[in-house]
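haha ok so turns out i had the wrong file open the whole time. this is the CORRECT one, sorry everyone. sequence first:
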Amino acid sequence: MLEAGLTATVSMHVRDADLASAFAETEVEHYPHVLSTPALLGLMERACAKAMVSALSEGQLSVGVNTDMSHTQPTALDVLVSATATLSKVEGALYWFDVEAADPAGIVARARHARAIVDHVQIEQRAERRRIA
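then structure:
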């Protein structure tokens, strides 16, 4: 059983694929050459997932089920950004985390994120049933 206060940190250098500008699909879409919110959210989720590893049995993984995020500062290409997740509580089947992301200049985002433990095969089977429905 995981206990409140557990922390985990994951870091990455911002790559071209992580930039908001990489999401443009048409000529009229223009986004800045800074770390995108989706890429940052992924990093924050990875920190939470890392914190949960010891709670998983064989065949299980954790999945994100809820996020409230504020991305307040830009981070440039090639800059190191880190996300630190702190388990705040376990509520039924949900593991709630407070997450902060920072680059060398300071905090760039904060989030409250919930994860659940699921069976790896079952969740993929559920997704497949939805695809063919």
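The chain has a mean pLDDT of 97.
again sry for the mixup
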